Automatic annotation (TrEMBL):
Cell compartment(s), UniProt: Cell membrane
Main location: membrane
Gene source species: Vreelandella neptunia
Protein name: TIGR04283 family arsenosugar biosynthesis glycosyltransferase
Tree of life domain: Bacteria
Entries under PANTHER family matching the protein: GLYCOSYLTRANSFERASE, GLYCOSYLTRANSFERASE 2-LIKE DOMAIN-CONTAINING PROTEIN
Stretches assigned to the Glycosyltransferase 2-like domain: 18-116
InterPro entries registered for this protein in UniProt: Glyco_trans_2-like, Nucleotide-diphossugar_trans, Trfase_2_rSAM/seldom_assoc
One Pfam family recorded for the sequence: Glycos_transf_2
Keyword DNA repair carried by entry: no
Keywords: Cell membrane, Glycosyltransferase, Membrane, Transferase
SUPFAM superfamilies: Nucleotide-diphospho-sugar transferases
CDD domains: GT_2_like_a
Length: 240
């Protein structure tokens, strides 16, 4: 199912960027996430594609007037983002989590970065209660620069042709961003922009900063060792 939002883009101007946002039960925060994008739908222009994974709250209804399209998909971030990318009309894609806010000038920076790179990401700043979040953010940014591996909450962007060439996100329940990064690295290293997206640190606040760090490093290590994403997703759910 597809809902058409109130289009703000000029019909004569094709979008420069398709922003794909997967959601699942994000009614509490989706309006705050989409509102900053509204001026960009007029001035750039961009298109905003929200892909709902079967929410049982009002996520889709709240998003509809603030997006160009709201699509329905089976739950699963990779499935949802692939569907959104299929409907994108722009030559470039940005995958944005529903609790992540772009920095000022983000669209121009993406455009400039893609003139010399096939893909890239932003630095991240995690917001929340834990005093460890600045350190966690720094570690995420440094690790990404060193390894060329990008996490989904860093605002992954790429040329649409590049996304298609590598087959999109692997349709697995966890580590889809890691696997896509590995595929993209075969083409080039990412553009690592210093401008920061601000993303919610709620999982660190809810589960505990050090517990979350240990959990994520253990899962990443096991994935590197060849454990299946399905098995690791079960471990992640059980730990949480």
């Amino acid at each position: 199912m597809q809902q058409e939002g109130r289009l703000l883009n000029s019909a004569e101007q094709p979008p420069r960027l398709s922003i794909v946002i997967p959601v699942l039960n994000e009614a509490a925060g989706i309006e705050a996430a989409l509102t900053p994008l509204q001026p960009l739908r007029i001035s750039m222009p961009i298109e905003v594609i929200v892909v709902d994974g079967g929410s049982d709250d009002d996520s889709a209804c709240i998003a509809a007037p603030l997006a160009d399209r709201v699509l329905s998909s089976p739950a699963g971030r990779a499935l949802q983002m692939n569907l959104g990318a299929q409907h994108g009309k722009a030559p470039a894609l940005l995958f944005l989590h529903a609790d992540t806010i772009l920095p000022d000038g983000a669209i121009e920076q993406i455009t400039q970065a893609l003139n010399g790179h096939a893909w890239g990401r932003f630095d991240i700043e995690l917001s929340g209660r834990s005093g460890w979040l600045p350190m966690v953010s720094w570690m995420m940014n440094q690790r990404s620069r060193l390894t060329g591996i990008v996490t989904g909450d860093q605002g992954m962007f790429m040329r649409a042709s590049t996304f298609k060439a590598v087959g999109g996100f692997p349709e697995q329940p966890l580590m889809e961003d890691i696997e896509l990064s590995k595929r993209l690295k075969r083409l080039s290293r990412p553009a690592c922009l210093k401008a920061k997206v601000v993303s919610s640190g709620r999982r660190w606040d809810e589960f505990g900063a050090w517990k979350t760090i240990r959990l994520m490093w253990r899962l990443r290590y096991r994935y590197w060792r060849g454990f299946s994403a399905t098995q690791l997703a079960k471990e992640y759910r059980d730990a949480r």
